[in-house]
């Protein structure tokens, strides 16, 4: 594969020349330091055995004790505090709209994606934890068995295989363990008291004169669910709210556009409904477009039929919106102080409604329970040959609730009493006004007598004027109904069998080793998703009184559908809007009629349990991954030609098979209309890869006039994939130590990531996007574009899109009384599309360059400083692009992005995949898929400083020892190039949310005696831009300057450990001791890097029984 590597390779050579030209200083024997006590480690960025101090690539080590004592709820929560892993997927990221991923913990090096980080266990592959994926859930790796974790922060595909684009995490497990150890921990997840509890046990024993070692491990862990209402910083319900809208031609009008409010509430869509009578508002002058214009009728005439189900004509409005008391009675809503812009401002301060921060009321941290087991044996066949075997079983269950179901229920008398009400969409249907049995009478009369105000078009300086009124006896219940939930189970099985050996001499190879092993892994994932049967919801809500008692008690409340069927209305009269024909013609339709239980949709607590049980629907999916790996390697030392040391070499081969299959939701969906995701089966698919690899390390000199030591090394790997073909990658590394006190390292590596099975073969499944409100080709969203350039581009490109359909719209402004943008044409806000795989994907390719300086000055004992500069350029990126992103990329650039536009079907009645909105809608459907497009780049500087002081040695005071460590990352640049039509167009992420310019961890440990250890750790991040200054320049009144960024963030943790005896230790601590929180003006979105959980405590005990 040909890649443009000239620039980075040139940089590598230059760095090597600079390093080699460093002056030679006096040399002496290197002092005995802790890091050099490790004779050999499994991963040092190379398969050639070497001292970690001569590792050719940047390396971070994490010890088991750090994981156990951190106080973090999960292993990934701790790893995510390492700046290089700061955007890893933590369990709180897997709640909400994601399906089947509950509780996953996926490392993400350099914020390039978890799929680009290779996770190994003892140098071997581990099966992926989600259907069709290779990303590994690191919380399935037994904590007590971990010796250490080695993190290589640079491309390493030529050494360890594909997917090591941003680096490698290798979990080294304890070998030949003998003894018994129990570790237990209780820790708060959230300051509300929700907790994580874990107990782990490990036992090992040697037999036959220590030739056989057998061990067994078991662990049980459970975690409480944390909901939005449990999170302390959300309770203030604080956010910036748009309070001034600027005209397109004058984005800076001197009035601050956004204002910070607390105690924000919303009635936009309440649990079990807010009923909005038909209404309209006077539009503000077009020079100050805080309220847009919309025509809902003509003076003196009935409201046009098309507006009965137009949500713009049934918005929240003072004197028109009704809420419900606890007893189900209705009253006009109290809006407190209403804030915001637009046709219907979303928020109010005080008054009725729910806290806006708890509006979705979904799970923030999933409830989980896990059982983990592993057994193994090591048998020394001879003095130089060792056989190993291990078996692991993990069973996990997680539960979380996402956003509740939501409906627009249109209330009017448009439907005849002897017909079924219209089901308009998955989230919209009609009910009759006059004879609904549950609607409070005062509300019914208010709707019947309702009139709507008709306003004139505004002018540049004058608002719309009241022209008169029109009869409008209709309303809309904006309702959030039953919750949607997911129950996930994940069962993992893994077996490893290997034989390894060492030898002194074999032909011309000295001090060699070999290894051959087989790994088998399997993951089975089952997901049960609960939601609502929309047809049943419509039937149950359309409740009437059975005056004749045909179904039982005269005057009893029954479902209209059941009553009409009992009355024997002719076939065809009960039109089936889901399946076609008559409802009674299908088994599902007949069951829905016969089992129907009337539902009161007016107010919380008015619903009977039997009615709710009637509504609920469940669908399930299963996924199964299989992985097989056969890996063999051979390494040793060759010749020493010039006295610098022997040449090192390693060669090997690998065969791997990845397989996935799954059952989709369609099997249980049947012919029902469900408020749930649908999707077909994942047919069994697989790929195989055959790979050969080699490494060589050439010592250039040792103890020479040129310096103490230098080594040049290289690596190469050849791939042959069954689904993408062949490819190769390589790496070049240079290590130079001019004197004992300083060393320089540089590396250049190419890497490759093959598309996963789900990216290539994933079946098309249904998904939804809110184009009705988010279409970038609506005037309101054009006005809200990030900057003036985007606004100008959108106007030009949207005009071109409209012209393709023979439409002429005025995207530059809001022309009163005119359908002047795509937004006016939507019949529903939630548009259906599909997402799935792409068989035409190509592999991703990356180049990475590192340059490191390692300082260990003899004149400062026990001090070390490591500086690692890195650059990574990832091209041919595989990314799943949302419909919203596709729609925006289509029109945001200087010209139409045809690649993105081709996935959005505008005004196209022939949507090729059979789902979508009505053909009259601006977007009738779309395809979300993984595609190869553009590139990612990142560069930065990692820094690590360590210093230890023995107080007695330095000051003559026997008061213990101090150890200090400072580690962090300076993110110089992180760019995403997402426009395949304009390769130079990029989004800069550095110093924006989740990507702090500098993030570092400071750790100070004091050990007064051998029994006590006290630690203070601070996680510090620089301020992150919410709105960048270039946007501020274009629209200087967008917000106050202090709200442009988050401000610096610091979290402080304290832990203490006491060794009761040699075998028993107790630990305790507080995490986020000073209750640091994210900036209030970030609103209600949780950013995990700011630690959203508040002050929490943990305690643990470790007992080594023997």
TrEMBL record:
Entry annotated with the keyword Signal: yes
Span of the signal peptide: 1-26
Gene Ontology CC: one annotated term: cell outer membrane
TonB-dependent receptor plug domain location: 54-168
Top-level taxon: Bacteria
InterPro entries the UniProt entry points to: Beta-barrel_TonB, Beta-barrel_TonB_sf, Plug_dom, Plug_dom_sf, TAT_signal
Cell location: Cell outer membrane
UniProt keyword Signal present: yes
Keyword tags: Cell outer membrane, Membrane, Signal, TonB box
Pfam family, one: TonB_dep_Rec_b-barrel
Transmembrane portions of the chain: none
Coiled-coil residue windows: none
Family classification: Belongs to the TonB-dependent receptor family.
Protein name in UniProt: TonB-dependent receptor
